[in-house]
Amino acid sequence: MSGHVHKDYTGAKFGMWLFLFTEVLLFGGLFLLYAVYLARYPQEFISAGKELNVWFGGGNTMVLLTSSLFVAISITALRRGAKTLCLRLLGSTIVCAAIFMVNKYFEWSAKISHGIYPGSDHMKEMQPGEMVFFNLYYLTTGLHGLHVIIGALVIAWAMILIKKDRVNADDWVILENAGLYWHLVDLIWIFVFPLYYLILH
Amino acid sequence: MSEEHAHIVQYKTFAIVWIGLLILTGLTVAVAQYNLGAMNIWVALGIATLKSGLVIAFFMHMKYESRLFQLSLFAALAILAIFIGLNFFDVLYR
């Protein structure tokens, strides 16, 4: 065993993709619910969708797209031996995750202070379609927000391994897989944003 | 292991993809302001699909992966499409 440790790069990455497929199906279930209820309550979805703030949703879209760029570049940087740049980019990604969550906090706070949250008296008086919209909104963005937090933790873990040179220019699959997870978080949001924030007509 | 995965994507490629993603985000916000009836949702989904295609192909390196990766992604998305599509045979004709 001395010296040589077998690493299956393709296997490690393929395993990550298989996990991502299960994540797609998890969120797919929520998108299925959205699609079915949109078909049933088109007018109510529009009136409820207008309540959401496009600036919060759009701003967070840009934050996530930019963070995805940072992660993508960080892998190239690591493989070219630019360790410091790689760590800075990953640090910036975690900052982006924090900005996203702070936005989410203000957005949810504003909604909750208007009495819009699952089980509230105000929601019980709404049209059934609007109630479904907001329940799905909280469920989907909540589950997505959880993924943002987990993604940031995974990237922080990758940063520690890079600092210790356990992940390096010759062995970067952990960073690659952490990056794949982060891009999935971005992908889900690419669909959440138009479906919830841009349903105006 | 670096010999079989030698492809390193250029910084510039990522930057161009990012600019494309921002433009498409602006486009989807702009289009949503117009009333296109039932087409609104399809245009929004079309742009989102294009954006996710860019993220998957470049940021997630799928463009540079082997057939195995690409086919399994296709299979997963086909299953999702069947999963959502077949439900509508029930929901729409109930």
Q: Segments of chain B where pLDDT lies below 50 for 5+ residues?
A: none
How many separate structural domains of chain B?
2
Instruction: List the quaternary state of the chains.
Output: heterodimer
Helical content of chain B (DSSP H or I, runs of 4+) = over 70%
Tell me the radius of gyration of chain B: 18 Å
What is the gyration radius of chain A calculated from CA atoms? 20 Å
Overall CATH architecture of chain A: Up-down Bundle
CATH H-tier superfamily of chain A: Cytochrome c oxidase, subunit III, four-helix bundle
Termini gap of chain B: 55 Å
Helix run count of chain A? 7
Describe this structure in words.
The complex is a heterodimer of chains A (201) and B (94). Chain A has 201 residues and is mainly alpha-helical. Chain A has one domain (9-197): Cytochrome c oxidase, subunit III, four-helix bundle (Four Helix Bundle (Hemerythrin (Met), subunit A), Up-down Bundle). Chain A is 81% helix and 0% strand. Chain A has helices at 9-40, 42-49, 54-79, 83-113, 121-125, 128-163, 173-197. The longest helix of chain A is centred in the C-terminal third of the chain and has 36 residues, at 128-163. The mean pLDDT of chain A is 95. Chain B has 94 residues and is mainly α. Chain B folds into two domains: 1-60; 66-94. Helices cover 72% and strands 0% of the residues of chain B. Chain B has helices at residues 11-32, 39-59, 67-91. The chains are: A mainly alpha (201), B mainly alpha (94). The interface between A and B is large, with 50 and 52 residues.
